[in-house]
Amino acid sequence: MSLFGAVTGWTGHQFLAWGGACCEDQSHDGAVYNPASNTWRTLPAAPLIVRREASGTWTGRELVVAGGEHLVRAGHSRVLLKDAAAYNLATGKWRKIAPMPRREAGATAVWDGKEILFIGGTRAGARGPAPRGLAYNPVTNRWRLLPAMAFPRSGFAAVWTGRQLLVWGGVTASGTVPPRGEAYTPATGTWTALPAAPLRGRESPVAVWTGRQMILWGGSRNGTPPRGFTDGAGYTPAR
């Protein structure tokens, strides 16, 4: 299977991937990699049709997969999806879960310890990323809408700090680069602006959380000619 665009998760011992596909392909294949034995094994079939750009992540117990885009090859039309399922590594079984409250593809998914936060997805009938993200609680099997971001975006970097979801970079529906990053605090249910970064705005940067800092680097900017970036910066949230 291709890992491009796959829903992935790290369990602490094994790496899971589901649904990766390239170009005009789509998939519903999954696999588990065990670093200790250096082996791959195939996941059982999921109760989901083939798709691309599904969203999801590992919750500490299950790999959750939701939404995506189904390509109808006969007419090359695309149908956004909202169904969802979860794979339990301990039992080796999939289960259907509550569908997303809207059809959506391509969201970035981050586990905050209680909910999966889905940000920046594309909705059916809408242009550009959704202003309001979604949150899924696996205990209650319920979805809810998140507050609106000041600058809804796609192609951004995101990390979970243990207290906040930090989002930086990306591009808005109008093609402009947001002036700042944003932080979502689940405890208060609010988005706040991050300080201005010492980097030019860009799409598709890479970010990691070190336990103290968000480290950003790379990315690109459309233009004539397009530009790639090799610089980076670190942001330390206030405690």
The radius of gyration over CA amounts to 18 Å
**Span between N and C termini?**
42 Å
Mind telling me which CATH architecture of the largest domain this is?
A: 6 Propeller
- CATH third-level topology of the largest domain: Neuraminidase
The overall pLDDT average reads 92
Helix content: under 10%
The structure class reads: mainly beta
The name of the CATH superfamily of the largest domain reads Kelch-type beta propeller
Question: What's this entry about, in short?
Answer:
By secondary structure, this protein is an all-beta fold.
Features of this protein?
single chain, 239 residues, mainly beta, Neuraminidase, 2 domains, four-stranded antiparallel beta sheet, 0% helix, 44% strand
Description:
The chain is mainly beta. It folds into two domains: 148 residues, Neuraminidase (6 Propeller); 89 residues. Helix content is 0%, strand content 44%. The chain is built from no helices and 23 strands. The strands form seven sheets. The chain has a four-stranded antiparallel sheet with strand order 1-2-3-4, with no helix packed on it. The chain has a four-stranded antiparallel sheet with strand order 5-6-7-8, with no helix packed on it. A four-stranded antiparallel sheet has the order 10-11-13-14, with no helix packed on it. Strand 17 and strand 18 form a beta hairpin. The relative contact order is 0.10. The mean pLDDT is 92.
Topology:
Blueprint: E1 7-10, E2 15-18, E3 30-34, E4 39-42, E5 55-58, E6 62-72, E7 77-88, E8 93-97, E9 104-105, E10 108-111, E11 116-119, E12 122-123, E13 132-137, E14 142-148, E15 157-160, E16 165-168, E17 182-185, E18 190-193, E19 206-209, E20 214-217, E21 220-221, E22 227-228, E23 232-235
Antiparallel strand pairs: 1-2, 2-3, 3-4, 5-6, 6-7, 7-8, 9-12, 10-11, 11-13, 13-14, 15-16, 16-17, 17-18, 19-20, 20-23, 21-22
